[in-house]
Specification:
Strand order of the largest sheet: 4-5-16-13-14-15
Distance between the termini: 31 Å
Largest sheet: 6 strands, mixed
Structural class: alpha/beta
Radius of gyration: 20 Å
CATH topology of the largest domain: Rossmann fold
Number of strands: 18
Shape: globular
């Protein structure tokens, strides 16, 4: 059965100034403003009305900046934990799961909550545009956008570190509308972002925008909407592993909308964000009570990224400092930055599999590990209403059942390539 949705009615607001203006297209920054800051969607509907499950993620379209519905999406699911909750001694642990878990009615083909971003962003994209969408990623975002764009014939250029290409697996070969370029082994996510920035300087390409794109953040915010509408009230604590922190910003923004909705209480849930030791720029800045990220040597940062298992958490320049960014979110809502090692994450992932019955992504295992530590350190009470955002899971289950296809890069660029070289080679790619 085909379903469709009307265009969502909303305006945009500059978080820095409070100015309200219309979304006249692919707006990523407030016009005429010099202070770095996010723009935020202000939806006409103040109370969220859910469509039925057949709409996938678009069951939450009231609070998504979209004008069309793409087929094949799933909304995150939330359920009250029994196994893990019993093991940790919690009475109100809720798990919000994005991934592949058919037994619970969710079949995200890329096994990651990044699908929530991709379906929202592509639902915002003008169907008549002749520009190629550009996405930089450490792996799982690229996989999600690649799948959604391939399924819907949306031209896409992906920029990914060569060391992360093993994340670009798919059930079937992708449509030729998806192209991949990579930064050579030893590079990291920031190097991939550099490639994407050079591409976006060229005619015919448009930046997806990352955290600046309201559709990306509000797509990720569906995890919070799922949790709150299932629980019936806003959670007290939110646990998630972060690379950019965009998911936590999105949860905070959704939290503010839910307060305005009026049916779920007026609580601001504490944002408990975690990083994978030894790469933790957000943790360092937060613990130093610094609005600015602390200086870090590029070479040292790349070495740290090589060590961590959760490669998707390797953003060196997250949207932390700007108006409406992670620092503002955590300052307003409360919470803390936490750390977990590779070993702690492996133990946590195994515990989740044992108690809940599904494998989880390394980043989700980092979040689970910090939840376990919070129990040991009595950071949270046994009866606190907790939301654990499992941002990816079921990957092992999905892979076992299928023969996988890997996306190969068209071009691999050296560290700090010449701008002219990048642009020349991109001009030779054919969509």
């Amino acid at each position: 059965m085909n379903h469709s949705i009307p265009k969502t009615k909303y305006q945009l607001m500059s978080v820095a100034t409070g100015n309200i203006f219309n979304d006249t297209g692919w707006i990523l920054d407030a016009p005429g403003e010099s202070e770095p800051g996010l723009v935020r969607a202000v939806y006409e509907k103040k109370q969220l009305e859910l469509n039925d499950e057949a709409f996938g993620i678009y069951k939450l379209a009231d609070w998504l900046p979209v004008h069309k519905m793409l087929q094949g999406s799933y909304a995150p699911i939330t359920y009250k934990s029994k196994g893990l909750a019993r093991k940790l001694g919690f009475s109100n642990l809720y798990i919000t799961f994005s991934g592949y878990w058919p037994e619970r009615g969710i079949k995200m083909k890329t096994c990651s909550f990044k699908e929530t971003e991709a379906y929202s962003v592509c639902g915002r994209l003008d169907s008549k545009t002749d520009k190629i969408l550009v996405v930089a990623s450490a792996g799982n975002t690229a996989r999600a956008f690649a799948q959604v764009c391939s399924d819907n014939k949306i031209p896409l250029l992906l920029c990914v570190p060569e060391d992360n290409l093993n994340a670009l697996w798919f059930e079937t070969p992708l449509d030729n509308c998806v192209k991949l370029i990579a930064s050579r082994t030893g590079c990291d996510y920031f190097d991939a972002i550099h490639l994407s920035n050079l591409a976006c300087e060229m005619d015919g390409f448009v930046a997806e925008g990352g955290a600046k794109n309201i559709a990306r953040r509000d797509g990720m915010g569906t995890t919070m909407l799922s949790a709150t509408t299932t629980i019936g009230e806003i959670p007290e604590y939110y646990f998630q592993a972060v690379g950019s922190g965009t998911g936590a910003i999105a949860a905070w923004e959704a939290n503010l909308r839910l307060i305005e909705d009026g049916r779920f209480g007026n609580r601001k849930m504490k944002l408990m964000v975690s990083q994978n030791f030894p790469f933790h720029p957000i943790y360092d800045a937060w613990k130093a009570n610094s609005r600015s990220l602390l200086p870090i040597d590029d070479i040292e940062a790349r070495k740290q990224v090589e060590i961590i298992d959760a490669k998707v958490l390797s953003n060196r320049k997250p949207p932390y400092s700007l108006a409406g960014g992670l620092f503002d979110a955590m300052t307003d809502a409360g919470g803390d930055a936490l750390l977990a090692t590779n070993e702690e994450a492996k133990i946590a992932g195994n515990l989740f599999l044992e108690t809940e019955g599904i494998d989880i992504h390394p980043a989700a295992a980092i979040a689970t590990a910090t939840l376990i530590s919070a129990v040991k350190n009595k950071v949270v009470k046994n009866d606190s209403i907790l939301m654990l955002n499992i941002t990816g899971g079921g990957e092992n289950k999905f892979k076992k059942e299928r023969e996988l296809h890997y996306l190969k890069p068209e071009i691999i660029f050296d560290v700090d390539p010449y701008e002219s070289e990048v642009k020349e080679q991109l001009n030779n790619l054919m969509w």
